[in-house]
Design goal:
The chain has 91 residues and is mostly beta strands. It has a domain of 58 residues. The chain has 1 helix and 6 strands. The strands form 2 sheets. The chain has a 3-stranded antiparallel β-sheet with strand order 2-1-6. A 3-stranded antiparallel β-sheet has the order 3-4-5, with no helix packed on it. It is globular, with a radius of gyration of 13 Å.
Length: 91
C-alpha cells in the first residue's frame, strides 16, 4: 500500500507492506484520520501509520505478488520512503 501525502515542499510517499505470509494491510478512515495498518491473520495490528485525511492525496493498493516470487532488497521502495515509513509507523 502506497500513501501519497501533501507536504509543504510537494508530496511525500510512504509504503506499508504485509511483511510476512498471512498478514494483510487494512485501511480505516474516522474523524479526519486515515489509518493504514498491517495486521495478522487474527486481526492483531503489527504496525500502524496515521495521516490527516485532509493531507492524503492518494492511497495506491498494489496487488499481492505471486507465492514463489520475492521482492529484491531495495526494489519497490525508495530509501526515503522506507525511512519515512519507519519514522511515521506507530507501535
Amino acid at each position: 500500500m502506497e500513501i501519497v501525502i501533501a507536504a509543504d515542499d510537494g508530496s511525500r510517499t510512504y509504503e506499508i507492506i504485509a511483511t510476512r505470509a498471512g498478514r494483510r494491510v487494512e485501511i480505516t478512515t474516522a474523524r479526519g484520520v486515515v489509518e493504514v495498518a498491517e495486521v495478522t491473520r487474527s486481526g492483531e495490528p503489527v504496525r500502524r501509520a496515521r495521516f490527516m485525511a485532509s493531507r492524503v492525496l492518494a492511497l495506491v493498493e498494489h496487488p499481492a505478488s505471486e507465492a514463489g516470487a520475492q521482492v529484491a532488497p531495495g526494489e519497490g521502495s525508495s530509501p526515503e520512503s522506507a525511512a519515512s515509513t519507519a519514522a511515521r509507523a506507530l507501535p
